Amino acid sequence: RHTPSVPRLGPSTTVTITFAKDVLAVLAKLTAADDQVDRMNDFIQRFLQRMLDMSQDVHDAVAAEAVQVATELLRQGVLEEEQGNNIRHLLFDECPAVRKATAEFVFEDIFSRTSARRRRR
Hints:
Order of helices and strands: HHHHH
Distance between the termini: 38 Å
Structural class: mainly alpha
Largest sheet: none
Oligomer: single chain
């Protein structure tokens, strides 16, 4: 799952993996709150690509949390149409947690966005 061109944050230790997973879990909760996304806009824009890249992490827990963050950003309208395209293939990942998180992302991307567009017309 890991793309060699994606830079790593540091050595792959249990502490680093746990820290990355915990940070992503907090970001998922913060981005789920409507009033927090506007306040976090500068942070999100600065680290958006890194958060999306983390969905390709070799560690299942990190990848699953990153996909959950991407799903919340999608729900909030932060992601552009083509952003997150590298997430869809994770529907076929070996890890059930990654597949579940990806299924929620794909559902949000395809069905929720489509119905929201129809309502706007």
